[in-house]
Amino acid sequence: MDQRQSIGRATVVQSNRGGGGVGRFTMGASASFYMSWCVCINVGLLCVVMVVFWNWRWRGGFAWDGSEAQFSWHPVLMISGLLVLYGFAAVLFRVPWGWSQKKIAWKLVHAGLMLAALVLATVGLYAVFNVHSTLNIPSMYSLHSWVGMSAVVTFAWQWFLGLVGFLLPCSAQRLSHYLKGIHVWTGQAVLLLSLAACISGINEQLFFALDGVSANAYSSLPAEALFANMLGILIVAFSSLVFGILSKADWRRPNANTNDEAAPILLREEAT
User: Is residue 127 a contact partner of residue 148, using CB atoms and an 8 Å limit?
Assistant: First the structure.
């Protein structure tokens, strides 16, 4: 059943088909979402550009030969996959122009982006473990490594639960209902762990890079330290934007009981 409700000058079509939830999305909310979404995308891409530049300019560049230059792939792949691509996939269902399309298509895109993020994170882990093995450096010795591994393992478990509960043809609707809350909660936990791993990783690298370097004031820190700190600030800003988008109830896709059901949310400007 569709219900129309006028709010100011905007008309919101509310969908309650199949017993699903009711979606409300005013014109003002739409503009606010797209502004936040665009900022989120640009900040995320800037994080990727900055971590690539940091490792190219100050960390010895890139290689895949077991040398220290191979380690540069670790922060690039972890930030690109475990944080940025993961964040993009997490907010995918909030995009309003996808609400009028079949949900299964967006589930597949969401799962595909998450899988790509997991692959990047896995390759990033392999890069650092391979370097440590080649150079006889101990692994899993720091809080950063423990938090990072926890993020990847939790992420892999979350993706598997999502596949079983929401995508397989044999997925039962009752199972999906019970797993949805777990899926959402685990996804937020992964994002928090990823944020902690990225920030602690930057601090760990700066600790080794600045060993023996004295600075009387923040302004006298080397350029690398200032640049890495800015990267850390952007990572926090990106994570905050993702959490902010996910926390807005008005920006959630209306519930649909089947993968084929679309949520016909229409916005029209009433004549004055």
Answer: no
pTM of the model: 0.82
Sole residue written with tokens 């199949």: 18
Instruction: From first to last of the 272 residues of the chain, give the pLDDT tens digit.
Output: 444 443 333 334 343 333 334 445 555 567 888 899 999 999 999 999 999 999 999 998 999 999 989 999 999 999 999 999 999 999 998 888 777 778 888 889 999 999 999 999 999 999 999 999 999 999 999 999 999 999 999 999 999 988 888 887 766 677 777 788 889 899 999 999 999 999 999 999 988 877 656 666 666 788 899 999 999 999 999 999 999 999 988 888 776 545 545 444 433 333 33
Torsion, Cα 199 161 124 138, to 10 degrees, reads 80
